[in-house]
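TA notes, week 10

Several of you asked for a full example with nothing omitted. So below is the full record: structure tokens for the whole chain, then the designed sequence directly under it. When grading your own attempts, check the secondary structure regions first.
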């Protein structure tokens, strides 16, 4: 059973207004709101690991009362519906109030081990922050969020989780590429789970409005509830907390680069204060290695949020958070926030090097390895090498007699494979010499590389195939993917199809390489 203890609404100011209509919300961190019921909910999938974290067994997941709660048709005892108020910088510009427009929190569940989880429905109807939108979500984007957040968790990447995916039995109208072609699509509701869904934008909004009292309350609450290890005096507390946020964000960026993940919309309202991957929208996975790639068609011109820029953007976002927090510190203490940003730089480069040392099978990173890796990236880019396939196969290289043939499958184009073969041979010779210098036994190196280089990631085209079938009423592939992605670092005989590099038909297909924010 779920046991609720709803600190956010108990300890932070909320609105009294009960009406569910769009408005600007001042002096409050949240607004009460009930989910809007759906016509014919069905549980399409759930994560047994998240259910276990919440102490939910199979019979409680199967109960009608649970389905009603997960679809937004009723609350369970102890639940309370609310949406939170935040702002954000979108594509570099201050966007004012945003808030949970289609996310409704149901409360905080505390499990038997004392771990606290916020439960949040996404797509359960409009809130006071919905502006003119409908508060709903389509099945395709809900499948993408459900599958990817679980896949990321199993890859070891910090992330919000997903307990359930419920089909609403209702249609939602979306103009997928904003080009005047609205289509009715099946709707869905995902129940997301995380210790906290608080975003950088939660702090930015009261700061932008000059409401320092509210800002201070939110900071104090966040440190107390979400960072219990940090205490001490109020000023040191703030700077130490910001430093911790910087550190977690740095770690997250190293993870994204390590696994080849592109978030797609790194606005400050999509940055988790806990350093979790949050808000799975037009994200994508690197197929052929291209540092400038973004799946988000809305960002195609500027490529602000492309793969390789993510660490720099995260830093920019941290600077915006620092700007928001600065008024809470006496002027002479503002430098402590700048020190947090410097800490970000240090941790990010240390984590990036450690991650790629692991991927390359090096015992430890040394200065010269930077050049080796840069040269590899350039070769991968020019010859259109598949990132996941390449790194996974690299462990199979015989470093006494390096043969480029073990990497054959990581090329998308035969002409490029042949053209860049001499470069690959030269690079492999340098790399093998580097590994021989380490002198690590092959079995040990292979085992560690296999722990660093996933065999299975949620390739864009696989997610799209699961979506196409689910839209036809067949959720088998969705379940198969969920299962395969539970053990991404294991070879899974019989499951090879789920690690195959992108087929040609998917190269320029909507949903596979191009996505919009319409979801
Ligand atoms: P996103 O681009 O999903 O991060 O959303 C940016 C803002 O728009 C957030 O305040 C969302 O809650 C809101 N939003 C996005 N889609 C919808 C929708 N269908 N209904 C209501 N609000 C939405
Ligand atoms: Mg968002």
């Amino acid at each position: 059973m779920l046991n609720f203890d709803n600190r956010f609404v108990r300890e932070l100011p909320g609105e009294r207004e009960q009406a569910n209509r769009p408005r600007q919300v001042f002096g409050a961190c949240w607004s009460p709101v009930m989910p809007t019921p759906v016509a014919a909910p069905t549980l399409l999938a759930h994560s047994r690991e998240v259910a276990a974290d919440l102490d939910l067994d199979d019979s409680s997941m199967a109960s009608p009362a649970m389905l009603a709660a997960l679809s937004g048709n009723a609350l369970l005892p102890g639940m309370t519906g609310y949406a939170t108020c935040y702002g954000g910088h979108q594509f570099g510009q201050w966007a004012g109030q945003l808030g949970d427009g289609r996310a409704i929190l149901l409360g905080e569940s505390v499990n038997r081990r004392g771990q606290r989880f916020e439960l949040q429905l996404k797509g359960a109807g409009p809130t006071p922050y919905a502006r003119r939108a409908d508060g709903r979500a389509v099945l395709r984007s809900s499948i993408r969020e459900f599958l990817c957040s679980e896949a990321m968790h199993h890859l070891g990447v910090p992330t919000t989780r997903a307990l359930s995916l419920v089909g609403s039995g209702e249609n939602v109208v979306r103009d997928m590429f904003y080009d005047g072609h609205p289509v009715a699509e099946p709707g869905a509701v995902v129940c997301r789970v995380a210790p906290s869904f608080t975003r950088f934008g939660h702090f930015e909004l009261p700061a932008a409005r000059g409401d320092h009292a509210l800002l201070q309350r939110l900071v104090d609450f966040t440190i107390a509830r979400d960072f219990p290890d940090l205490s001490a005096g109020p000023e040191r507390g703030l700077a130490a907390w910001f430093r911790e946020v910087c550190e977690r964000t740095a770690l997250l960026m190293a993870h994204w680069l390590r696994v080849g993940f592109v978030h797609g919309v790194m606005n400050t309202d999509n940055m988790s204060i806990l350093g979790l991957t949050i808000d799975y929208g037009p994200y994508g996975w690197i197929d052929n290695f291209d540092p400038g790639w973004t799946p988000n068609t809305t960002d195609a011109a500027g490529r602000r949020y492309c793969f390789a820029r993510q660490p720099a953007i995260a830093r920019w976002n941290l600077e915006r958070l620092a700007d928001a927090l600065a008024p809470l510190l006496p002027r002479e203490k503002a430098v402590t926030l700048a020190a947090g940003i410097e800490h970000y730089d240090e941790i990010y480069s240390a984590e990036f090097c450690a991650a790629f040392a692991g991927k390359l099978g090096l015992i430890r990173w040394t200065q010269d390895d930077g050049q080796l890796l840069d040269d590899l990236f350039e070769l991968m880019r020019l010859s259109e090498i598949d990132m996941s396939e390449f790194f996974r196969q690299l462990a199979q290289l015989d470093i006494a007699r390096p043969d480029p043939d073990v990497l054959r499958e990581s090329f998308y184009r035969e002409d490029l494979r042949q053209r860049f073969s001499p470069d690959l041979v030269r690079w492999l010779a340098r790399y093998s010499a580097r590994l021989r210098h380490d002198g690590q036994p092959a079995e040990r190196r292979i085992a560690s590389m296999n722990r660093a280089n996933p065999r299975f990631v949620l390739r864009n085209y696989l997610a799209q195939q699961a979506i196409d079938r689910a839209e036809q009423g067949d959720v088998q592939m969705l379940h198969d993917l969920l299962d395969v992605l539970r053990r991404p670092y294991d070879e899974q005989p019989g499951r090879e199809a789920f690690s195959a590099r992108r087929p040609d038909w998917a190269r320029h297909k909507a949903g596979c390489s191009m996505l919009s924010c319409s979801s």
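The pocket of magnesium ion (ligand 2) is lined by residues 269-270, 279 (CB under 6 Å). Use that as a sanity check on your answer.
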